[in-house]
Specification:
Among the domains are: about 140 residues, Rossmann fold (3-Layer(aba) Sandwich), CATH 3.40.50; about 80 residues, Beta Barrel (OB fold (Dihydrolipoamide Acetyltransferase, E2P)), CATH 2.40.50.140. It contains 14 helices and 21 strands. Helix 7 runs parallel beside helix 8 and helix 11 packs parallel to helix 12. The protein is globular and about 65 Å long. The structure holds S-adenosyl-L-homocysteine, iron/sulfur cluster and FE3-S4 cluster. The site of S-adenosyl-L-homocysteine has 17 residues, from strand 15.
């Protein structure tokens, strides 16, 4: 009998990917994903620990779910404590909060049945069996010796036109603000052969765009069939050879791991999209050193120059932290200067959030909240203006768009540009999953509107261009 599985996901793309993998592991046990937690047989909260209040959000969500769990048990005529039967809602916390605060979750929320970290997802069937047999919570926050990737089932065949593929996980960089090295563990690269095989399966299932994922994706390395060591640049070249793989991206990169081969791939591999998420965090050398980033602001500027020299179309996105302990007005001004020099298509800005167990949290020169707020607003304003200018630069130009979703309006498809912009256009559903030339007619801060211009256009788009403009407004 089919059982209902509800997964709620917070955090990065790796967590989104992990949620899909958990659903794949649970499918043979009869679990099918549903969109609502009400009445579900299993609810998994896949949590993120990167910034403040993460744990609190989880506890308040658990409070709501406990009610649903009790209701389900009552409806089946039992109590939530019954360990088996139709009335049971198995409640689970996974992800980075589970890894960091597993014991606290078990202590504070004993009605939770399973608490497990990111490296244990392949053992879900055993954990479920254990949780079903016994009362009390199953806690699993080990870093097992084996790699989960050797045990996880193959991805469900069709992942859609644009799919994620995890190639690397974990981090050895230990930036002084960050919990990821603790929650995800040491850097690990999946074997090249395994990645290539998975990419072939994705392409055969209709995927046209593959985003390679890793906490430090460009630290990926592996053995090629000839015994030589490959870096990410070489892996990308090999992936580009696979029939049907028309677009490749990778995220998230660390500036220190951008080697020459990877940089050259941006010039030489047409499938590699001209858009790179390359976080720098700060423009001040003093702060970069305190963050343990191990490069200067000028190192980053030179790297960006080199990338834009090999590929003038390349656009950048980034991550910034304002209000890191000890950040002065001058340090912050250096960040604004770096942003002005580099010019971003998009960027994420965060207020520094002290994380338990990280060195920077122990610093006594914490920046007051109002100062953080002010700096955040100033940085967002600058980056917002750059984003608007970037998007406006495309009006009147044509670009290749991969249509990967239907739009909210009838006859409208949504796609993504080479630069990760969302593009709306009136287009026939036949174009779903295909890459099509689109002329951009309007730009908004975070999306573009266009008209299909190549052979396979829909009649609507052609006969009513004015309508398409208006309808997408
Ligand atoms: N591995 C990636 C990013 C990981 S976390 C990298 O090295 O860039 C994503 C982003 O969250 C980081 O780039 C950083 O900008 C932000 N971040 C991480 N820890 C933070 C903290 N304690 N406070 C505020 N922002 C943080
Ligand atoms: Fe965190 Fe730094 Fe590792 Fe990125 S490189 S995951 S910011 S420790
Ligand atoms: Fe969050 Fe863990 Fe990703 S802390 S950002 S879910 S690696």
């Amino acid at each position: 009998m089919s059982k209902k599985l509800f997964i709620k996901t917070w955090g990065c793309q790796m967590n989104v990917y992990d949620s899909a993998r958990m659903a794949d592991v649970l499918a043979p046990l009869g679990y099918r994903p549903v969109d609502e937690p009400d009445g579900a047989d299993m609810v998994i909260l896949n949590t993120c620990h990167i910034r403040e209040k993460a744990a609190e959000k989880v506890f308040s969500e658990l409070g709501r779910l406990r009610i649903l769990k009790d209701e389900k048990a009552a409806a089946a005529g039992g109590t939530a404590a019954d360990s088996s039967g139709d009335g049971r809602m198995i409640l689970a916390v996974a992800g980075c909060v589970a890894q960091a605060e597993g014991e606290e979750i078990v202590a504070r929320a004993p009605f939770v049945d399973m608490v497990f970290g990111p490296q244990t997802y392949h053992t879900l069937p055993e954990m479920v069996a254990k949780a079903t047999r016994a009362a009390g919570s199953v806690l699993n926050t080990d870093f097992p010796a084996e790699s989960k990737f050797d045990f996880l089932p193959e991805e469900a065949v069709s992942q859609g036109a644009a799919a994620f593929l995890a190639v690397q996980e974990g981090c050895d960089k230990f930036c002084t603000f960050c919990v990821v090295p603790y929650t995800r563990g040491a850097e690990f690269s999946r074997p090249a052969a395994q990645i290539l095989l998975e990419a072939k399966r994705l392409a055969a299932g209709g995927t046209r765009e593959i985003s390679l994922l890793g906490q430090n994706v460009n630290a990926w390395h592996g053995d090629g069939p000839d015994g030589s060591t490959w870096g990410l640049g070489r892996l990308i070249r090999e992936l580009a050879e696979i029939d049907g793989v028309e677009r490749i991206r990778y995220t998230t990169s660390h500036p220190r791991d951008m080697d020459e081969e990877l940089i050259r791939a941006h010039a030489e591999v047409p499938q590699l999209m001209p858009y790179l998420h390359l976080p720098v965090q700060s423009g001040s050398d003093r702060i970069l050193a305190a963050m343990n980033r191990k490069h200067s602001a000028d190192d980053y500027r030179r790297l960006v120059d080199r990338l834009k020299t090999v590929n003038p179309d390349l656009a950048l996105s980034g991550d910034f932290i304002v209000g890191f302990p000890g950040e002065s007005d001058a340090d912050f001004a250096a960040t604004l200067k770096l942003v002005s020099d580099v010019g971003y298509a998009q960027a994420y800005c965060f207020k520094y959030s002290p994380r338990p167990g990280t060195p920077a949290a122990l610093e006594d020169r914490q920046v007051p909240e109002p100062v953080k707020e002010e700096r955040l607003a100033a940085l967002q304003q600058l980056i917002g203006a750059q984003q608007v200018a970037f998007n406006h630069g495309f009006v009147g130009r044509t670009m290749k768009v991969l249509f990967d979703r239907v739009g909210r309006r009838d006859g409208q498809l949504l796609g993504r540009s080479p630069w990760m912009q969302s593009v709306h256009a009136e287009a026939n559903e036949r174009l779903l999953g295909r890459i099509v030339e689109v002329r951009i007619v309007e730009a908004r801060p975070s999306s573009l509107t266009g008209v299909v211009v190549t052979g396979e256009h829909s009649t609507t788009a052609h006969s009513q261009p004015a309508h398409s403009l208006e309808a997408s407004a």
